[in-house]
Structures are given as structure tokens and as C-alpha cells.
Amino acid sequence: MNPLVQICFRVPFDKIQASDVRPAIDELLADAHQRLDQAIASDRPLQAMDTMTERLDYAMSVVRHLESVATTPELREALNEVQPKVMAFYSSIPLNAALWKAIQGYAATDEARALSGTMKRYLTKTMDAFKRHGAELDAAGKKRLQEIDIELAEITTKFSQNVLDSTNAWDLTIAEEAKLAGLPETAVAAARAAAVQKGREGFRFTLQGPSYLAVMTYLDDEAVRREMWRAYNTRASSGDYDNRALIVRILELRKEKAKMLGFRDFADLVLDDRMAHKGDRAQAFIEDLRVKTDPRFRAENRELAEFAQREIQPWDVGYWAEKERAALYQFDEEELRPYFPLERVVAGMFQIFSSVLGIRVSEEPGVPAWDKEVKCYAIHDAKSGEFLGSFYADWYPRENKRGGAWMDALITGDPQKKDPHLGLICGNLTPPVDGKPALLTHREVETIFHEFGHLLHHLLSRVEVRSLSGTSVAWDFVELPSQIMENWCWERESLDAFAAHYETGAKLPEDLFQKMKRARTFRAANAQMRQLGFAFVDLALHREWDGSTDVVKYSRGILEKFAPAPLPGDYSMITGFTHLFASPVAYGAGYYSYKWAEVLDADAFTRFRREGVFSQTVGREYREKILARGDSEDPAVIYRDFMGRDPDPDALLERAGLIAAKA
Nearest CA to 447 among 418, 410, 405? Predict the structure, then answer.
């Protein structure tokens, strides 16, 4: 039997082959069409719709996931072949006149008028979504909209694949260890292991996160830093993997779609059901942060140039900033690595949130996965023992795996039936080398906590409607449950639960902790302006760019205003910006939401800081009032339920040290 055609909580990753994809998707598409017909004929179409694509959703989630973590030419080809017809089906749902008529008919019934709570919100959001996705267009308009959706699915997938291939196409081998001056021992060992993996002598460096960041932060050789920086920031901008034309086409199609649906631009379309609602409001939000951040940003960059006693180039920034931080705070981030072995960090994180949130996390050995390093875990409610869900964790980089870190949902359970959820978290963290455990940077520790926050949002959801469950919330709210988790990486009490020397077991020394805390806001304005630059270029491309200028040059012109050093003429990070262009929507016109949610998380964590970072009372409220509720209520209402008020917009600036804390 084809392993993709039935939903299996224990996903048979060890049995799925590329040859399974085409026949499975054809079968599941036929099933989905049949279920769609049943929904149209039902007197309760809304309820039927919620599960009609469940099997297809599952299979496509599994296939897309495998293509991102264990890609092969055959799997990529299979995904590229089935994706257009799957996208055609999904985009046809709100364009189906008979289904729209059935929903409108149901909405006029006494039963529908009597709905309350989650089901009332589900009906309202469904009708709004159908209108926003073309239900009221004429036949020609519906046909064109479907063509746009199919083409977007195809070319955004190609964009992502080009970035992966371009990243893997570049590496650098250095023969002599003497040329690695400045690099930490961990980075040297990793480079040696990477060379051995390819059958080479010397030390091999790649554009994958741990390798690239180590070079940019510590390597004394400026020529090598410059070479790697240029390689990274020109990925997918030329040759076989050139994404420039794809970006132009993606923007054209998104703009055309927005205009067809009656919106000023793509930002207004995608923000319509988010907290910001309008592109203007999102733009005003990031402009306000820019104005408040800019003076300190300029001061930080003057201070760095004075410290380095030279004009700073882009490939110098990380290197000289690390030296300045070490001089100011006598703090080298590499000193922290021995205290953050991956296994202990993960175990400590589980311990903290088991206590705070009232859950129990346990490893499930022997569960088949896509790589031998992947582990599987179960989550139970600590009080009742109810099995809430399971998740996979895949932490290390591989050449068949895309970069970055992410969480994804594989199965959305039904809490009314006590059906569990299934999800996963992935990263590209420093791997173990030379017989030592994986020793992480503090930033990598934050990444683990961040993705676990997304995962808990999925696994602890108690919403009975699949499409409103877990992380299926407004995108400017979805980062709250992830970003708030990073705060526990900075508190002494919580650090003591997982920060211990991998050899001696000694806790993180107090003097090192204090140095880390003092250095937390070092160049905070630069960190903020970097994110704001991405948000500005995102909104500008989706609201203002008219196609009359080169898209890479246009983007560079915006980003250089937020850069700490002049950008060279070939700078083209936009061609590798998967956040914006690796799916039909992705974070397109929504990158601002990181900062929006950061305001929420900085403010919401003040409750934990005030009442205790291990407070089970606050933790239980957080679980019940935010994590469990998904999109069953307006996110502004959900936030107020937890905090008792609207968010304080200055909370983020205070945490970053950019304004004085309120008394």
C-alpha cells in the first residue's frame, strides 16, 4: 500500500519513496474532489469543509517536508510535478460557485445565526476568506486567479530550490591551519571534519550557518571574510540558479492578484485579516521604530569605526563588533559554548516548560524518521496524563537540507476526540565534532527555544476547528509564542536548568552570566535596524515598486539605509530571501510581523518577570489563554485576556536598552 495515502500518526518516513508521490497525490486529489462534492450537498457545508482536505494536506506536508530535509533529484522532480495540480485544487475551493452558494445558504439559516464562539468565528472567517480569494469574481476572473496561484506555487518552489542549490554550489578549502587565525577551536574542528567528509585535505568552509557565521565573526583574514560575505550575499543571483527574474514575476503575480480582488496592493490583501489590517499601518509601525532607533544606530556605527580605527566594510562588521564587545565587556561569546551542550539544553528546556506549562515531555525511541540524527518526543498533560501529541527534532545541517530553522505541523488533532497533534522542529546548529557533544552558541540556544515555542502553540492547541487550530493565527501574532520563549535564555533561574559545562557539570559562572547580560544590548540598535530594513524592503516591493527599475538595485537602495557599512554594487541578498519568496505568500508583505510580535512578547514576558519565570499560575494562564486558543478569537482579545490590557509599545525599546525603563 502506498505509504502516503492514509494518515499515519507514526509517519512511515523509512518507507516513503519518490515514486510514491505521483500516484498518492492523484488518489488523494480524487478523494478531495469527492469530499468537496459531499460538502456542497451537505446541509452543514462548513463542518464538512474543515476535514475535506485532511488526507491531501497530510501527504503534501510530508512530501514538502522531505524535500526540504532529505531532498533527492527524484523527490524534487516528483514534488515539482504534483504541486501545480494540488495548488489548482486548493485555489479552486473558494472559486467554486456551488460551494459558495451552499455556504451562503447555510449562513442564512437559524442554526448559523445561533452560532457562538469558535464556530461563529469560523463561519465569519470562512466567508471573508472566500471573498478575499475570489468567490465573487466572474468566470474569467476565477480562471485567471487560479492560473496565478498555480504559477506562484511553481516559481516560488523554484526560488527555494535555487537558493539551496546556490548555497551548496559554493565552498572554500584552506590548506594551512595558520591561515585560520582568530577562529575558535570549535570552528576549526568543524571545518576539518567538513573537509574529511568531502575527501579533502585541510579545512572546508561553506555558506551554511555555523560555518559562515564563525568566519564572519572571528577569522582574522579579511580577504577570506570578504570572499565568503560576497558569496553569501550574491547567492542565486547569476548563472543556473539566478532568482532575479523569478522575483520580478512573483511580485507581478502578487500585484495582479491583489488588484483583481479589489485591494490597493498585495500588502493590503494579505494583511486584511491580520492585526495590522492595512499596509499603511504596518509601514507606520516600522517607521516609528526606525525613527526611535536611528540615533543610537548611527552612534553605534561611529563607535565601531572609532574602535577599529578604520573605515568599516560589510565583511568587517561582525568581526570588529565581536572585538569591541570583548573589549567593552571582557566577554567572548565562545566562552559560553562549553556550557551549552545541545542534549542538556534540550533536556533543560523540556524541564522548564514541563513545570511552567503543566506538561510532560519524553523521548520516543525507535520511531522511524528521515535521518539517523532525528529524535521523536511525546508530550502528555502532567495532571491528567492525556497524550497531547508528538514531535520530531532535526538539529544539524546537511547538504540535502535547506538552511535556517523552522517548525511545521504534520497532523492537526481533534481535542474533542482526544486525537493528538504531530509536528516537527528543524535547525542548522553547530554539529558535534572530534568526539565532543554539539556545543552551541547562545544565539543557537535562543533558536531552539524559539522553535519549541511555535511547536507548543501547535501541540497544546485545544481548538475543535482544524483551520483555526494551533499556529493558524494572524501572522503578526504567530511569532508571539515563539519569541517569548527566548526570554528564558536570559534569566539566571532558567539558565541554571540547562547551562552546565559539558565536562565538569559546573553551572554557568556568575561573572560570565553578568558579562552576558551586560552585553545583551550591545549594538541592539543595529540588530533592530537590520530587521527593520528587511521589513521596509518587503513592504516597498509589495506596495511601491513598479517594475521600472532593476529589482535587485531597488532593494539594495533601501537596505543600504539600514546597513552599518556601505553595500557593494553586487549585493543581492534579496535573491536569497526565502522568507519573502519561497512560497506563494510566505512572509511576503508580512516581515514586519517579527517586530510586531516582538513588541507583544517583550510586553507579555513582563508578567512572568513580575510574578516569577517559573510561575505555574502564569504558565497555566499562558497555556490556556494563548497557546490553547489558536485563532478561535481575535488575537487582540486573546492578548488582553492574558495581560488584562493592550500591549505597551515601548516594551521592546526598553528591553533593547533604546529607551529608559519606566519606573
Answer: 405
CA gap 650, 80 in Å, rounded: 45
Location of C-alpha cell 460551494: 99
pLDDT tens by residue, 193-242: 999 999 999 999 999 999 999 999 999 999 999 999 999 999 999 999 99
Report which DSSP code applies to 72: -
**What's the gap between Cα 474 and its chain centre?**
14
Question: For 468, which DSSP code?
Answer: G
Nearest to 525 by CA among 309, 321, 347: 321
Alpha helices in 261-339 (DSSP H): 266-271, 279-308, 317-329
Number of C-beta neighbours around residue 565 at 10 A = 17
Distances (CA, A) of 187 to 184, 208, 211, 463: 5, 12, 7, 45
Helix (H) or strand (E) holding 421: strand 421-426
Angle ∠(610,274,35) on CA atoms, nearest 5: 120
Percent of the chain with pLDDT over 90: 97
List residues with catalytic annotation.
451
Q: Amino acid identity of 322?
A: E
The C-alpha atoms of residue 593 and residue 271 are separated, in whole angstroms, by 10
Quote the pLDDT of residue 663. Answer: 57
**Other Cβ atoms closer than 10 A to 466:** 21
Of the candidates 46, 102, 28, the one whose C-alpha atom is nearest the C-alpha of residue 468 is 46
Q: How far is CA 10 from CA 25, 390, 403, in A?
A: 19, 9, 26
**Which tens digits make up the pLDDT trace of 128-141?**
999 999 999 999 99
Domains of the chain: 18-93+96-132 (1.20.1050.40), 170-235 (no CATH), 341-498+594-655 (1.10.1370.40)
For 453, 603, 625, 636, the CA distances from 620, given in Å and listed in that order, are 15, 18, 8, 19
Task: Tell me the residue length of the chain.
Answer: 663
Q: Which residue has the cell 481535542?
A: 415
Q: Which helix (H) or strand (E) holds 422?
A: strand 421-426
The pLDDT confidence band at residue 475, using thresholds 50, 70 and 90, is confident
- Is 424 strand, coil or helix? strand
Asked whether the beta carbons of 476 and 593 are under 8 A apart, the reply is yes
Which secondary-structure segment (H or E) carries 618? helix 616-625
DSSP 377-394: EEEEETTT--EEEEEEEE
Residue 434, Ramachandran bin (φ over 0: left; ψ between -120 and 50: alpha; else beta):
left
352 Cβ contact list (under 8 Å, min separation 6): 488, 494, 497, 498, 614
